[in-house]
Structures are given as C-alpha cells and as structure tokens.
Known about the structure:
The chain is of the alpha+beta class. It folds into two domains: about 5-75, CATH 2.40.50.580; about 80-230, Trna Endonuclease, Chain: A, domain 1, CATH 3.40.1350. It is built from three helices and 16 strands. The strands form three sheets. Strands 3-2-1-4-5-6 form a six-stranded antiparallel sheet, with no helix packed on it. Helix 2 packs parallel to helix 3 (about 195-205). The protein is globular, with a radius of gyration of 18 Å. The two termini are about 30 Å apart. The model has no long low-confidence stretch (mean pLDDT about 95).
Amino acid sequence: MNFEDKLISAQFVKRYKRFFVDVKINGKIITAHCPNTGSMYGLLKKGNKVWLTKSNNPNRKLKYTLQIIEDKKIKVGVNTHLTNKIVLEALRNNLIKEFDKKIEIKPETKFGINTRFDFLVTKNNLKSFIEVKNVTLSRKKGIAEFPDAVTSRGLKHIKELIKANEKGYKIYILYLIQRDDCKSFKIAKDIDPEYSDTLLKAVKKNLNVLCFDCKFSPKGIRLNQKVKFII
C-alpha cells in the first residue's frame, strides 16, 4: 500500500482532542490530522520522530496527516485508515495463505442489523468474514499487544463473528501489527479483561486468529510475515 504523498519528517510535540497533533517541522509548529482514535499507548512522547504526508487538496483544513511515529528507533504505523488497504492489497496478491487467488473479496460487508465486517471473502460456496484490527502496542520487547485501551467496539465484533459462524460463515480476526520488531502477539488482558476472555472463548467456537507484522519503506507499508499468536 503506497502513500499518496511523499513522507515528511518532523518531531512530535503533543496530541489533543483525539484527532489533532502538533508537530515541529523545521522549527515551526504545525497542527496535523491524527487518523487514530486509539490511545497510542507508549508512542506519544515529546520529541519522538514522526512522518507525515501533506495533501494538495485545497478544501482540506488540515493539510498534514500523521502516518508514522518512531519510538526507540522502531517505526510504528498509526494511520488506521490504511489498515484495511494494507490487508486488501495482501489478499489481492495472495500474501495470506489461508486465502488463495480464486476468491471474491467484498470490503465493508453488512451482517445483521448494525454490524459491518471489514471483508467478506468467498470461494465457491464457502463464505468467510474477516475483521481487521490495527495493532501498535508493544510493552515488552518482541511482543505486540491489543487492545491499547478498553474496546467496546472490538468486543461487539467478536460477538457478532460468533453469530456469523452459527449461520455458516467461517470467521477470522486479523491483527495487523504496524511495526516490524515483534515476533509474537498476545491480547492485553490487563487492559481489557472482558475482551480477552471473550476472544479466548470465541477461539473455542471456531474463531480463527491471524497475526501479521508490516514492512516499511519510504513509499508505503505492506503486510510482511505471520506472527505467532500467544494464547
């Protein structure tokens, strides 16, 4: 998944009102859009190096968008708007072995009354729902974790996936780790015990858990390799 615009380096100053960050570019403070509603636990340190893109759209109030934060020399992708694009590219290029080339991919598919899953993948008569979660948290070297805050929305998705399985769908959660320094992944039970317990129960009810890290380049971010899920 390539960035639409060239990356610009800056220094992180502060975040506020969830969607706004102040950064310093060449000594000047600029307010940029923060496309991440999560806590970004552990990343928001003053002075951290960040990368942004600048839009040429004259109608945009905030021209800059935060894309990457570097913490302890590790790049972390924080733009959650790119998460599904990275996974869609991987599905189309046969980078996820659970799904081969002979599939139909339908993004943002409605299920039930108030639920949309990120992808519906169909092969012959087998239909699979994939819900994608963006991961940035790593509190211990080599281990990625999710969530970084209590997630009622994430909890709802697990419960709805179980309902989908009862109706004959194969079900997946794909944790996209937007960093490349983690060899394993686990649920942060201390942060959200209910999410952790519900996920583990769902695994016993046919929920498939996939975890992948990402590879960074100046041009973009791509799905890289599978990461071990620690139960």
